[in-house]
LysR family transcriptional regulator
Amino acid sequence: MLPEFKVAQLRHFVWVAELRGFHLAAEKAHRTQPAISLSIRDLENKLSEPLFEKHNSRAAKTELTPFGQHFLPKAKEFIAHHDRIAEDMALLAEHKTGHLRLASVPSIACHFLPELLLNFIGDRELHVSVFDDNSDAVLRMVENQQVDVGIASLFDEQGQSEKHFTPVWEDRLGVVCPKDHPLASHKELHWQELQQYRLISNGTSRLLRGSEVESLLTHSQYYISNMMSLVAMLEAGFGVTTLPWYAFPKNNAQLTFIPLHTPVITRRIGIIRLNNKSLAPPAQAFVDFIIATQKETNN
């Protein structure tokens, strides 16, 4: 049966060997000399070999046996490996190292994530991977455990019972059209004012389902899931679309956003994680940080 080493015993052995005395090793360990002697004796029993030469004179320096000389670098290597693991785990528990994997819808990835990550990471040695995609893709990445957490809308909360959704952000739905479009002069819009115009549906159009605006979706000639393509179609004059405020490309000089006032439709975006599965310390810390930051913002 292989011996099971205690790190403390190995440290005592190394200190006695390097300081060449039990008394000095006891001082370094903040233990009594008999306690160090007992620790070394127990280690020798486990190894079935003596580690130090026996001397009749107490004044003689402690010397290693040939077996002890062979064991010393092994003990040091064991201690160093243990300390590296202990340090890594301590840093991980303190959220100062590790790998944080996130998936987010583009609107949050562009508007909020850069500042959140910058403030959260600070001087931490964290590796961060961010995947930018629509809500359905974010949900799949969470399901497949490709990411620790997702940031997206959970459109069907009852059908996603294996996931936990914590709402964080909320934005209002509006109409997006070119600045020279007839609707562009309106400050707010009633949904019936959209009926005479071609509606381009997109991934967020499911927000219209169950509302009085839903009838517009049946007449939608185009569906475009990619935001860059959607913007290009809008700029080319193919029609108008509905988007939540955070998803609107605010630096675009050719498009404008007009809020819908009838009906008022809002989108909830939040943190999505699997139920009954603990997060790695950096991921849990980042979730807590997002929630705390948003609370401060709202107060």
User: Anything to note?
Assistant: The first strand starts at residue 97 and ends at 104. The CA atoms of residues 26 and 159 lie 64 Å apart.
